[in-house]
Amino acid sequence: MSEPAKRVAVIGMGRMGGAMAVRLRDNGTEVVVYNRTRPKAERIADRSGAAVADSAREAADRADVVLVSLSDDTAVLDTYRGADGLAVGLRSDTVVVETSTIDPETARTHLPPLVEERGAAFLDAPVSGSVPAVEQGGLTFMVGGAAESLRRAQPVLDHLAGRVFHMGEHGAGAVMKLAVNAALYGLNQALSEALVLAERAGLPRDAAYDVFAASAVGAPFLNYKRAAFEHPEETPVAFGLDLVAKDLDLIQRLAARVGATVRQAEANDRVAREAIAAGLGDRDMSAIAAYLRR
User: Fold this and answer.
1) 7-170 sits in which CATH class?
2) Where in the chain is the domain with CATH 3.40.50.720?
3) How does pLDDT run across 219-230, given as a tens digit for each residue?
């Protein structure tokens, strides 16, 4: 007998959470959504046919798998805790999949007890990939937690993921996500500088980008960010510069705890904060190039 379809709650209707809810509904999954500001959840519900919960507690109570996608540690902890928090609504057979980019200590020591005291299972499972990757089912999940819990969540992740990596115990997924982002933000900075260098020396932006994409530095990042770099004023924000700065702070704090040197991240953080101070915080991460053009 086949396993019954999973009912899924998606908590957090930002760009990624909203896209996950739509993707799951498009694949026939029963989905309930929740957002602290209800109109965001209602817009996704109108688009996808998902149900809307009045609280994180209600959303969790109606699901077998709970996907969480929020902006930072404070938002995550506030959503789990309290009388109407996610944790109170969990049943013993529920798996919580925390996809937010958060401090590994939060994923290792603060969240698992809130979930496990209800008899439920917790996975820290941040993702690599932006909204187009969600829409194509091509996210990369980096998972920390028990292998059996991952097995139970896998049917849901399969609708969203191209690859799923089990990295180890609680916190391991969060560590891996920060390591990936440390490299990603370095690439974003290097590409921004190189593109502006070519432009200032008289080369057309699109021609220079053609060569970058075909050269040794060519990577999936260059392909899916091409429109953002070539036509920044016409391309929707995929990942905001303010969130880049948040992540770079987490990267440096992790590095300090484990005794790692991250000079590239320190430089990237300095430039990102300069760009934010110049009024670009709500722009896409590719706006580093726009800042360097000034």
Assistant:
1) alpha beta
2) 7-170
3) 999 999 999 999
